[in-house]
Every structure is written in C-alpha cells, then in structure tokens.
Specification:
Largest sheet: 5 strands, mixed
Structural class: alpha/beta
Order of helices and strands: EEHEHEHEEHEEEEEEHHHHHHHHHHHEEH
Radius of gyration: 23 Å
Number of domains: 2
Number of helices: 16
CATH architecture of the largest domain: Alpha Horseshoe
Helix content: 40-55%
Strand content: 15-25%
C-alpha cells in the first residue's frame, strides 16, 4: 500500500481471504463520533473543530450528562449534527460500538470530547481517507492519527481512531481496541498524517472527572470477564497500583507470567504486557521504598530487553540519586548512552519517547554541572512527571539543591 499520508505500519493488514469486505464505491461517507458525558468544558471546541471539516455527519453519543453538555451541543445548528442519548453500560467499547451501528456505512472517526482537530487536519482528512478506499483489504484495518498533548507536545501515534464501519468493532470496557467479531484476527493498524490535540489528562481535569478511579474499576471489570487476558492484568496494575501495597503489585506481576496467550484481536504480545507491567510496578515499588523488589524486577527487565532495559537505567539511577552516592560521571554517561540509542528507548515500558531518561539526565547534570547545564538540557526535552520528578524537575531535593535552584 502506498499513500502520501501513510506514516507507519504498526500492524500489517491481514488478507481478507473469504471474508466479504468488498470496498464501497468511492468516496465513502465520513462520520465523526463523539462519545461524551459531562463535557461542557470542552465539547463546544471539539464540535466546532470537526464541523469545520468536510465530513458527512457528526454523531454525539451522550451517556448520561448532568451538566450543560447537551445545551452546548444544542447551540450548534448544523444539519450534519445528531445527538443520541444512551445509558452508560460501564464500557467504552459498548458506547463506541453503539455509535458505529448508528453511523452510515463508510468511515467513522472517533474524536473524544476533550480533543479537537490539529491545524491542517480538516483539509487533509478527505484526501487521506480516499487514498485507502481502493484497497480490497482495508476493511480489516484501523487508522491511527497523531494524538498530541496540547500542553507538552507529547505524541501518541498508535491509537486506533478511524476505521470502516462494517467489519470491525471495539472490545474492552476500557483501553478498548478494535477487533474482528467472531475471528481471532489482529486487524491492521496504519499510522496516518492526521492530528488530534487533547488536554483531558491535565492533572486538575483528570482528578475532577475521577478518570483514574473510573479506569481502575473498568479494568477490573474487563479482567473479571477475561481473567487470563494479559491486557487486563496489565491495565489493572497500571491504573490501580497507586492504591496497592507491594504484595498486591507482586501478585499481579506474577499473574502475568502465567498469562501467555494473546487476547483475541490484540496486537500486543503477552511478553510486551509483562515487560511494561514490570516497569510500571517498579515506579510504585520505588515510591513505597521496596527497592529489593525493584532490583529483582530490573534484573528481569534486563533479561527481557538485552543487553539492558532503558527502564533499569532509570530506576537504578533513582536509587543512586535518592539513597546512594548521588550523581557520578559514569552514571551520567550510561544514561546518555541509553538515551541516544533509539532502539533501546523504544523498548521502554514506561515511556518509549525517553522522557524519564531525560529527567534523570537533567538531575545528573544539575548535581555535576549546575543548574544552568540542567536547564539547558531540559529545555530541549518534553516534560516528565512521576513520583520522583515533576515536569522533569526532581522532587524531594536536598536543601543544598533547593538553594542552588532558587
């Protein structure tokens, strides 16, 4: 497949084989679907953005708003705009699938209420999609635009958002993904040069909407429905670990060692979930001070990502900064080498963009070369925040460090 808008193939399209997936006559209708609940803050911006694009329909599927969301929608009089109210079934897949059933046969693009089209995307949307419409197997593929954090500029490039309406459906109560109903086939995932901006995970917004608590409950539900699926074990850990002790975290990581079958239609392998789970677990375990378990998981991560995991560089560096000798030239060199190796960074279970390593390098530079050197480096990096860094600035610094940075 060749298209000027094709950025990357994250998962190749499987052959349609005997499936009847004959493409529609071009051009296909394009529906934008917005699943919303209590989104009065952002939904007007979202709708103004997508209604400025040459799409055929905009479907707002409201799952029980009690604020002014529906009033804000009603202020738009565009005939392409339709509102459907639906009971929330504790499943994002169910809501998205309901929107797909309501949409016209063709393309559907999901835009969250806290998102809006990036500059230029409205003009490029039709030319981009039309280039894929002649592929006989495109019914088994989803497209992934760049989803860009409006504050930090960090991009998420492999999240499915656009797909044909007649062949794929969503699966999972949360962290849902596209699959082929009734078949154990992994759909293709194609990165395309379209962009969405979002701001819904600003800490104050996420806290006000209770997103972490909601996701924890939904991940537990997904795991209950498919207890051996490694995807749900991983997300149960990642979303819920901040309320767990060491024993609960170890229990979930141990469960992943026995979950060795890929979930139906999931493009990620059990080993991938295991590796990512160990990296995230180390963050919470380090926060709890359980460094013995952190070092055990670091040894496992190194075996899974030879010769060394970028995440073990990070956690061992944290231990030296907070509990050991502090920054050393050798540690700075090791972190810098890991950060420069794109293949190494891509294996990170914490952040394949390497922001955590940048924060660590910034902390090393601050101790070894001073505030100006650290600031000069961090000014070129995207920010990183976790229990040890806030916006790539080290938390819990010594009194001496605070005086230097004052």
């Amino acid at each position: 497949m060749s298209s000027p808008f094709l950025r990357n193939v994250y998962e190749p399209i499987p052959a349609a084989g005997s499936l009847d997936l004959a493409p529609l006559p071009a051009p296909w209708p394009v529906t934008v679907a917005v699943v919303a609940r209590d989104e009065e803050r952002a939904i007007g911006r979202c709708l103004d953005s997508v209604l400025a694009a040459p799409v055929d329909a905009v479907l707002v599927l409201d799952t029980g708003s009690t604020d002014r969301t529906l009033a804000v929608v009603a202020e738009r009089s565009d005939p392409r705009l339709e509102v459907v109210s639906r009971r929330w079934e504790n499943s994002f897949a169910a809501a998205r699938n309901a929107a797909m059933k309501r949409a016209r046969t063709g393309w559907i693009m999901f835009v969250d209420a806290d998102e809006w089209l990036a500059p230029g995307t409205a003009e490029l949307l039709r030319p981009c999609l039309s280039g894929f419409e002649t592929d006989p197997d495109i019914g088994l593929a989803a497209l992934a635009p760049n989803i860009i954090d409006a504050d930090s500029g960090v991009q998420y490039r492999d999240i499915a958002r656009i797909m044909p309406t007649w062949s794929l459906r969503w699966h999972g109560a949360v962290h849902e993904y596209p699959h082929v109903p009734g078949l154990d086939v992994v759909p293709g995932l194609l990165g395309v040069e379209l962009g969405l901006l979002h701001d819904g995970y600003r800490p104050q917004i996420a806290k006000a909407k209770g997103k972490r608590e909601r996701n924890t409950v939904l991940a537990a539900r997904a795991r209950h429905d498919e207890p051996e699926n490694p995807r749900w074990i991983f997300f149960a850990l990642r979303d819920g670990m901040w309320d767990m002790d060491s024993a609960a975290i170890v229990e979930l990581c141990t469960a992943l060692t026995g979950a060795d079958r890929r979930g139906r239609g999931d493009r990620h392998s059990p080993e991938s979930y295991h590796r990512r789970a160990l990296a995230h677990a180390c963050t919470r375990l380090a926060q709890l001070g359980d460094w013995i378990q952190v070092f055990e998981y670091c040894r496992r991560l190194d075996r899974m990502s030879p010769p060394a995991s970028p995440d073990t560089v990070y956690f061992r560096g944290l231990h030296e900064l907070f509990h050991g000798a502090g920054a050393t030239p050798a540690a700075l060199l090791a972190a810098t080498r890991a950060r420069k190796d794109a293949d190494t960074v891509a294996r990170s279970g914490l952040d394949p963009q390497g922001r955590h390593l940048d924060a660590l390098i910034g902390a090393y530079l601050h101790e070894l070369k001073g505030r100006d050197a650290a600031n000069a480096y961090l000014s070129m990096c995207h920010e990183w925040t976790d229990p040890f860094f806030d916006g790539s600035r080290r938390r819990g610094r010594s009194a001496r460090d605070r005086r230097v940075s004052a």
